[in-house]
Amino acid sequence: MPTTRRKVRPDEADALVAAWRASTLELRDFCAQQGVDGRSLRYWVHRLNAPTQIRMLEVTVPGPSPASVLRLAVEDVTIDVPEGFSADTLARLLAVIRAC
Distance between CA atoms of 25 and 20, rounded to whole angstroms? Predict the structure, then answer.
């Protein structure tokens, strides 16, 4: 008559897997000695050997908005010119405004 063996509990899995690896016993014999189900211990052996899944999340932190160093106001048009703004682009923009 087959003996019923208990499943390995999650809280004891690490210790049992380590004890089995440190022993010279076959898994079947170790499980019989410990009174645990071989399929259950084999599950934990594979689960503890599996690489840890790492979830990566991209986080984008908005940088500070460029500080306006110059504000041009011509009638109802206002242009904020931030630091590092291209002089060529500003010249083209002013030419468009003059043409209106």
Answer: 7
